[in-house]
């Protein structure tokens, strides 16, 4: 009887999670995006120029890829503050392999991805087995990854990458920036992973009710490590594309990108406290962040005001989400 009680107690929460595992685009996010586009179009005559639209797409791609990883981490009731630093670290590793060590250009691809995976694995291991809060662990990794990138480059960017590698960041098949294509492909794959696989379902289950997930037999520790590895992998991918786009492995790349990535995921409908996430909503959130940053640049708004605006948007997104949850209750 005791076993029956333990397995049935979390059922309501688990049913809610499974019923909502695919996530739905929030109408509010689409309205905000449309409103921003209209406002920026009226404020700047060059906003809708083709060249500027490509700038928005490129900015969105980097933040968006980081936000895809953040969607899984936050959906599992975790947090990853290290993705910007891991992105820089991965880019430096890729550039180091092909420029300094003289390896073939394609070695940068697995090099960047492996660097991201390693950092994510370390985050997951320390969080899971060290039983240290994710906030503390990933905050520490933020400093470690950035510090290592600065140390091995002596604070200098590694310039001059091979032309085939630059295509990943600067190529435009059919006129579409290559990073945007990679972002769309990654978003589709991660949507399918979240919505239609056991890994995706269990990610939201442990975010909604970890104790219930354990009672169901979900391997929480192993799963949590994989989630942080996925976040690290996305940071490595973002580092690869950024490195190829700017033709350098820059140890200072990705400053404050973790805040924008988390904001994009939450705006898109991912619950900051776990249990609900939507990849396509994150794509909309990333577009909102890209349009906002691009519009502020066009209006010559100082950078520090841009950081203030991102912080305000993050707080507002969490507040609106909490109000919506209270209304449902």
From TrEMBL:
CDD domains: TM_PBP1_transp_AraH_like (cd06579). It is a multi-pass membrane protein. The keyword S-adenosyl-L-methionine does not apply. The keyword Membrane applies. It is found in: Cell membrane. Its main location: membrane. The chain crosses the membrane at residues 30-47, 53-74, 81-97, 103-122, 134-153, 173-194, 227-247, 259-292, 299-320. It comes from the Bacteria. Keywords: Cell membrane, Membrane, Transmembrane, Transmembrane helix. This is Ribose/xylose/arabinose/galactoside ABC-type transport system permease subunit.
